[in-house]
Automatic annotation (TrEMBL):
<keyword id="KW-0378">Hydrolase</keyword>
<comment type="function">
    <text>Broad specificity carboxypetidase that releases amino acids sequentially from the C-terminus, including neutral, aromatic, polar and basic residues.</text>
</comment>
<keyword id="KW-0121">Carboxypeptidase</keyword>
<keyword id="KW-0479">Metal-binding</keyword>
<dbReference type="InterPro" id="IPR001333">
    <property type="entry name" value="Peptidase_M32_Taq"/>
</dbReference>
<dbReference type="Pfam" id="PF02074">
    <property type="entry name" value="Peptidase_M32"/>
</dbReference>
<keyword id="KW-0482">Metalloprotease</keyword>
<keyword id="KW-0645">Protease</keyword>
<protein>
    <recommendedName>
        <fullName>Metal-dependent carboxypeptidase</fullName>
        <ecNumber>3.4.17.19</ecNumber>
    </recommendedName>
</protein>
<dbReference type="GO" id="GO:0004180">
    <property type="term" value="F:carboxypeptidase activity"/>
</dbReference>
<comment type="similarity">
    <text>Belongs to the peptidase M32 family.</text>
</comment>
Length: 489
């Protein structure tokens, strides 16, 4: 076998083991017994030791030095493996294993603290996670910026300063739009009532189906924090139910279906390699956000959803136009995942600044709750009432995902660009959405973006799909046009 063939075979096994590890994470969030957290932490640490040894194997380094790619696909594979090898060889095996163990246990500790609104219960664990992530960042950065070193795990090719500059450009237009909308004479009424759990889950399944989610290679389960897990032939999603807030369940489902359909649509020839996964979290979020927002919250598709919900739950007390306003209602709120499109990116900007400060050592874990509450009051004009509505609401920091949050907004920016290109190619798309047929749009996304997996770099993936370089302009234009029309401002 050639050096390239050896690398491909090596990656096939590593990819498969990583999928097994991911399945353990899915199990932990859905059906694992609560008392199994400590043992699961040891299992995750053991698997991470095996994976780290494979990813840093000196033999892999020798093959990389000799390998010649046979084609463009092979060149992309070598690019991914070289990047991974370079990063993993900087991180000691002890640290990689300890991170896997601590973050696995921390996930359960966070869930307990969130349920009890008990920050003190979570702080020692959070402090340990942050210390380990700072150690990892120092190993990766090699005297460079610590946060940038962590960000590269989720969005290669961009820096914290670049994201900060993008946020600085976005913030004035977002704040101005929010002020206009909240001060408008017309304010949509919320959807009220009780919507049974089973009915919500039936409708979630229907939504997943019309978007093209393949249940032969996936499933929907329940979790505290909805997520998607897996690649290739086994891609699972989760959702959650609040009987007085059906949009939480339905749009969480659509969001995760966006992630899952991306993974399910990647060219099967790329499977069992780094090319067989979404290329970055920013690109991944572009799929979940365009599925959820530009398609799912459009006037066309909400008209279809209004009829489906009426059939499932009875009279909703509002017509399709009022329902469209209820789906897109802008209001002060604590929870990022329940935020409207106008304010969502402001939630991300706050988390971005806080986690950069934590990793830089400018903010201590013990001061995080006060910093969060002060910043939230300044940014949203609302005082945080309890920790589960504040610093305990998100799972990300407990599992060590520092550098992940800004990819949500980057995904929104990419989604704005993709929707501009999609509408140019499919000018009659609203007719399909009104008929409950978003697969017309998702087929476009599959062809232009999803099937290519990790073949290209993240920004090039979006550029090739759109036909132009991405920036925040299309997203902001879309938001101003949509919410200006809804609110008459």
């Amino acid at each position: 076998m050639s050096a390239f063939d050896n690398i491909a075979a090596h990656e096939r096994t590593s990819w498969s083991l990583a999928q097994v590890m991911g399945r353990l994470g899915w199990d932990q969030e859905t059906v694992m017994p609560r008392g199994a957290a400590e043992q699961r932490g040891e299992e995750m640490a053991a698997l991470e030791e095996v994976l780290h040894a494979r990813r840093t194997d000196p033999q892999l380094g020798e093959w990389l030095a000799e390998a010649v790619a046979p084609d463009a696909k092979g060149e992309a594979l070598l690019r991914h493996v070289r990047r991974s090898y370079g990063r993993n060889t900087r991180v000691p095996a002890r640290l990689a294993s300890e991170l896997a163990r601590v973050t696995s246990v921390a996930q359960s500790t966070w869930a307990e603290a969130r349920a009890k609104d008990d920050v003190a219960h979570f702080l020692p664990t959070l402090a340990r996670v942050i210390a380990l992530k700072r150690e990892e960042a120092a190993a990766l950065a090699q005297n460079g910026d610590l946060y940038d070193a962590l960000l590269a795990d989720y969005e290669p090719g961009i820096t914290g300063d670049e994201i900060g500059a993008m946020f600085a450009r976005m913030r004035p237009r977002l704040v101005a739009l929010r002020e206009k909308v909240l001060g408008a004479a017309y304010q949509p009424k919320p959807l009220t009532g009780s919507f049974g759990r089973e009915g919500q889950l039936r409708l979630s399944t229907r939504l997943a189906q019309i978007y093209g989610y393949d249940f032969a290679h996936g499933r929907i389960d329940m979790a505290v924090h909805p997520f998607s897990s897996g690649s290739g032939g086994d891609v699972r999603i989760t959702t959650r139910v609040a009987e007085t807030d059906p949009f939480n369940c339905l749009y969480s489902t659509i969001h995760e279906v966006g992630h899952a359909c991306y993974e399910q649509s990647i060219d099967p020839d790329y499977r069992y390699s780094p090319l067989g996964e979404g290329v970055s979290m920013g690109v991944h979020e572009s799929q979940s956000r365009i599925y959820e927002n530009q398609l799912g919250r459009s006037k066309a598709l909400t008209g279809w959803l209004h009829d489906q919900m009426s059939a499932e739950f009875g009279d909703l007390g509002m017509d399709p136009t009022a329902f469209y306003g209820a789906v897109n209602r802008v209001q002060p709120g604590y929870i990022r995942t329940e935020s409207d499109e106008v304010q969502y990116n402001l939630h991300i900007m706050m988390r971005f600044d806080l986690e950069r400060a934590l990793i830089a050592g400018d903010l201590s874990p013990g001061d995080l709750e006060t910093a969060w509450n002060d910043r939230f009051l300044a940014d949203f004009g609302v005082a945080v009432d309890r920790p589960s509505n504040g610093m305990l609401q998100d799972v990300h920091w407990s599992v060590g995902l520092f550098g992940y949050f800004p990819t949500y907004s980057l995904g929104n920016v990419y989604a704005g660009c993709l929707m501009k290109a999609l509408r140019a190619d499919l000018p009659d798309i609203d007719a399909a959405l009104a008929a409950g047929q978003p697969t017309v749009a998702t087929a476009w996304l599959r062809e232009k973006l999803q099937q290519h997996g990790g073949l290209r770099e993240p920004r090039d993936t979006i550029t090739q799909a759109c036909g132009f370089e991405p920036d925040e302009g299309p997203l902001l234009d879309y938001l101003e046009a949509k919410f200006g029309a809804i609110y008459g401002v």
